[in-house]
Write a structure and sequence with these properties.
The protein has 450 residues and is an alpha+beta fold. It has 2 domains: 203 residues, GAF domain (Beta-Lactamase, 2-Layer Sandwich), CATH 3.30.450; 144 residues, Heat Shock Protein 90 (2-Layer Sandwich). It is built from 14 helices and 13 strands. A hairpin with a 2-residue loop joins strand 5 and strand 6. Helix 8 runs antiparallel to helix 9. The radius of gyration is 31 Å and the shape is elongated.
Length: 450
């Protein structure tokens, strides 16, 4: 006997233990392409999902340099609104996604937003004269404040805004980095904050702090990679431009020094024109690569796009003496992507395959709907293949095994695939040819072989 279960339970169950409900909500963010703001919203949602699960409201302050700045305040704006929200949350079949979307709606309202109230609040994180809520972040301590109006360490302006006698400050940090602080209260239920509530809040705080720290490191890594790529591009472009410019300069000097030699003048002008053409090609390829935009994918039929590439004059010329086999499944669904970029990606791979294939060889273009979610396009050649060292660098910018070209073609194809939510794979061995697989999302829910 085999029992099957979904990895995530999408429905919100108000009778679940708090711990399970909290972790269930947070786990949703791991399976969604959310921004850091959205993922922090998920964590705040886990803390404020109704009277039976979490706190009534949650404030988020984030660090900026040595300052702590108010950013988000999530929760109902009144007891009446709180009652309405919790009634909605008790509706059978309500899901975590709906809860998160509801909370995102609260934050995007233009009028009377709670978040707008706390955004002007800014606190110093220096160790001198620390006040709450900055004290919690700077000292990396959870602070439960009771009888807040009698507590001298609480900022009066903050107290005026939050308007409760009891609240909990949860610092967000990882290693030595202070990321922010979350302030929680029960303004409407007036329930006392219990030790078990503090434990749950600390769990969320640890997750949020580590998530923010990981995101910060990831962004730094991306920035370093971007700077390294820019440096590599500058060196490469300089190298590509130097030789033509040097040639143009030298032959121009000869023209200026020997203006009456007609034969030399014509020869020099032809060389200069050829070098200018090289410069134009370099600039065209670079600009074309940089112009790939992340457009919203649309459904389209790939068959006519592939046929258009195969019927183009340059592909026909390159394929002379090479057998081109086209095998496209009859009942192929539409795919999601950009038709123009799709055609350019296919042309790029087909160009490479034809150049790699010797006379008498074969290039195969095949498409299959082998999975209900993916349509796979294969382009395979019978060329000399690639050793592992070349295969590893295949999608690196400015890497090429050709004498001419910028080495941006395959990186362009990779960007096209990523822009439509697809992926690219390559199999190749020296002497065995090369196979590229392009995975496109199907525009249909599932295949039917009836």
């Amino acid at each position: 006997m085999i029992d099957r279960y979904q990895f995530l339970v999408p429905d919100f169950q108000s009778k679940e233990p708090k711990e399970l409900a909290l972790l269930s909500i947070i786990s949703q963010s791991f399976f969604q392409p959310f921004s850091i703001e959205d993922n922090l919203l998920v964590i705040l949602t886990a803390l404020t999902s109704g009277s039976g699960v979490g706190f009534n409201r949650a404030m988020l302050f984030r660090t900026s340099g040595d300052k702590l700045k108010g950013e988000v305040w999530l929760g109902p704006r009144s007891a009446e609104e709180a009652k309405t929200i919790w009634e909605v949350l008790s509706t059978p079949g309500i899901g975590y996604v709906e809860i998160i979307e509801h909370n995102r709606g609260l934050l995007t309202r233009e009028t009377d937003s709670l978040s707008q109230i706390i955004k002007p609040l800014v606190y110093s994180l220096s160790q001198e004269n620390l006040i709450i809520p900055a004290m919690s972040a700077a000292r990396k301590e959870m602070i439960l404040v009771r009888n807040s109006r009698q507590e001298p360490f609480v900022d009066p302006k903050f107290l005026e805004i939050i308007g409760v006698d009891e609240f909990l400050c949860v610092p967000l940090f990882a290693l030595d980095e202070i990321m922010g602080v979350v302030i929680l209260d029960n303004a409407y239920t007036r329930q006392t904050i219990e030790p078990k509530d503090i434990k749950l809040a600390s769990l969320c705080g640890l997750m949020a702090g580590n998530y923010m720290y990981t995101t910060m490191l990831h962004n730094k890594m991306i920035e370093m990679e971007r700077l390294a790529a820019l440096g590599e591009m500058a060196i490469f472009i300089t190298h590509q431009l130097r030789n033509p410019l040097t040639t143009i300069g030298g032959f121009t000097d000869q023209l200026l020094n020997s203006p009456n030699d007609a034969s030399k003048k014509r020869r020099n002008l032809e060389i200069i024109r050829k070098e200018i053409g090289r410069l134009e090609n370099v600039l065209y390829e670079l600009v074309h690569f940089l112009k790939v935009e992340m457009k919203k994918p649309v459904p389209f039929d790939l068959r006519p796009e592939i046929q258009a590439v195969l019927q183009s004059s340059d592909i026909k010329i390159k394929s002379e003496g090479i057998e081109v086999v086209v095998d496209i499944e009859e009942r192929l669904p539409k795919i999601l992507g950009d038709p123009t970029y799709f055609g350019e990606a296919i042309r790029n791979l087909l160009d490479n395959a034809l150049e790699a294939t010797p006379q008498g060889g074969r290039v195969t273009v095949q498409s299959r709907w082998e999975d209900q979610n993916w349509v796979i396009v294969r382009i395979q050649d019978t060329g000399k293949g690639m050793p592992p060292a070349v295969k590893e660098k295949l999608f690196s910018p400015f890497f090429s095994t050709k004498d001419k070209g910028l080495g941006l073609g395959l990186l362009f194809v990779k960007r096209v695939m990523e822009s439509c939510g697809g992926k690219i794979e390559v199999d190749s061995e020296a002497g065995q040819g090369t196979l590229f697989r392009l995975y496109f999302k199907s525009a249909e829910e599932g295949r039917s072989d009836a």
